[in-house]
Structures are given as structure tokens and as C-alpha cells.
Design a protein that fits this description.
Strands 1, 2, 3, 4, 5 and 6 form a six-stranded parallel beta sheet that branches. The mean pLDDT is 95. By secondary structure, this protein is an alpha/beta fold. The chain is built from eight helices and six strands, in the order E-H-E-H-H-H-E-H-E-H-E-E-H-H.
Length: 259
């Protein structure tokens, strides 16, 4: 297995840093190849702008079109091309980050915005009466799997189905479905550490053991059963889920998960 770990925390000795280091040692000791993109250590440029596209940038800037032209012509900046090459090398992607303001840190969102360029991660495939491009189960990154390893400050009850912050599955849905599954990556159920802000040294070994076990099942774990876009569940081109396919009473994000 070839694993790319993208790490997004500014403090190397943080819980996130420890989980990243443990992932590297666990996977390497199991015989797997690992590469790490430590975004803060790299000084990753988070803000997308015209400089990313060099001479392919237009005026006024048109992000989708310009990023596709730059990708096609090999004009994306070296840092972006390097991350794209890592993604193409990997068969497994681990995103390690703290949940800040109900989402990923800005530096990691910036990694996605710059690296997942047009024609690389989206904007591919035919549009016809039966297909609406290759996405949500198909695409340039199909055949890979991804796992979110997320630390959360509050207790698990705050993120339960009746918790005040909303279910953790709903909070992570935009990342799971909208960022990872969109270009074809299969998404594994997340590894979530709750109460991270109050964790004591005595509590860490249990978390570390659970993390090691998850890492050692990356190849065999069942992914989240998201519905594939072009395989009969959705009307095309409206992309509305066909009537009667949802389990009784299920609404919202849950409509897009089978079973």
C-alpha cells in the first residue's frame, strides 16, 4: 500500500502531530510506503490566485477555466504539481487535522482548492443522456481510498444525532462526499478523537492503540456506501435521487448513502 498523509496542524508536538507520526511508523513497520505532506512545515500557500496558473491565467481571472488550461499545459506551480504527483502515486490518502469551526483548517482547504484543479480532479468525462461527467464514484482519482483522522475539542455527545453541534457524519459530509468522493475516491468511515482539548497523557495510549488498529485495516475496511452518480440512482441531468430509493424517513445527506 502506498499512503499519502496530509497533515494540517501548526504544532509538531500536538495530538495531531503525534497521530501523524504514529501513522507513519505503524504503516512503515507493516511494510507499506508512506509520504507526508506536512502543510505548516512546508509553508504551504493556502490562498488560490492567478499566480498558480502562470501564463495560463486570464484577466479577469477565471479559476475553473484557467486551472484546467494550466494543468493541461503543465503550467501549474511546482508545489501544486508535486502534490498532484503524490496523489497519483498513492492508493490511500489520510487527512490528519483538527476540526476547527466545523470544518478543516484553512491551510488544508487551500491544499484542496489548489491541488484539486480542473481536469485533474474534476471536469472530466462525457455529458450525455446517461452520464453527467465522471464524478461521485468515477473520475481521475478512482481506485483510491481515503480516511479522515480528525480531532474534536468537545465530547462525543455534542456530535451525536441529537447533539447541539450536529451529527459528526453531517459535519464531515462536505469533505467525504463533496471533496473526496466527487473525484472518485472511496471514503472510509472516519477516525474521530473526541475531547481532544482535555485529553490527559494517561488517556493517549488507548487512542493510539485504536488508531493503530484502524491503520492496519485500511486495505480491508468497507467504505461508506455513497451512491454512484451515473449508475441509475439519479435522474439525469437534474441529479435528483429517483423516487422510492431512499429508506423510509431518511432525508438530507443520508439520502446519498445506500442501505
Amino acid at each position: 500500500m502506498k499512503t499519502l498523509i496530509v497533515h494540517a496542524h501548526p504544532e509538531p508536538t500536538s495530538l495531531n502531530g503525534s497521530l501523524k507520526d504514529l501513522a507513519v511508523s505503524t504503516l512503515e513497520n507493516a511494510g507499506h510506503e508512506v509520504r507526508v505532506s506536512d502543510l505548516y512545515a512546508m509553508g504551504w500557500k493556502a490562498a488560490l490566485d492567478g499566480a498558480d496558473y502562470g501564463p495560463a491565467a486570464s484577466s479577469p481571472l477565471q479559476v475553473v477555466r484557467d486551472s484546467g488550461r494550466a494543468f493541461d499545459a503543465g503550467l501549474l506551480t511546482p508545489d501544486v504539481r508535486a502534490e498532484q504527483e503524490k496523489l497519483l502515486w498513492a492508493d490511500t490518502l489520510v487527512l490528519q487535522f483538527p476540526l476547527w469551526w466545523y470544518s478543516m483548517p484553512a491551510i488544508l482547504k487551500g491544499w484542496v482548492e489548489r491541488v484539486f484543479s480542473f481536469h485533474f480532479a474534476y471536469g472530466v468525462g462525457e455529458h450525455s443522456a446517461t452520464k453527467y461527467g465522471e464524478r461521485f464514484g468515477e473520475g481521475t482519482l478512482a481506485g483510491r481510498r481515503a480516511l479522515l483522522s480528525v480531532t474534536v475539542g468537545g465530547p462525543a455527545s455534542h456530535y451525536a444525532p441529537r447533539g447541539i453541534n450536529g451529527p459528526i457524519e453531517d459535519l464531515l459530509f462536505p469533505i467525504h462526499h463533496g471533496i473526496l468522493y466527487y473525484p472518485g475516491i472511496e471514503v472510509l468511515p472516519p477516525f474521530v478523537v473526541y475531547g481532544a482539548d482535555r485529553m490527559t497523557p494517561e488517556e493517549y495510549p488507548a487512542v493510539a492503540e485504536a488508531w493503530e488498529q484502524r491503520l492496519l485495516t485500511l486495505e480491508s475496511a468497507e467504505p461508506i456506501a455513497f451512491r454512484r452518480q451515473n449508475f441509475g440512482d439519479y435522474e439525469i441531468p437534474s441529479l435528483l435521487l429517483k423516487e422510492g430509493l431512499e429508506p423510509a424517513g431518511r432525508t438530507g445527506f443520508g439520502l446519498h448513502v445506500r442501505g
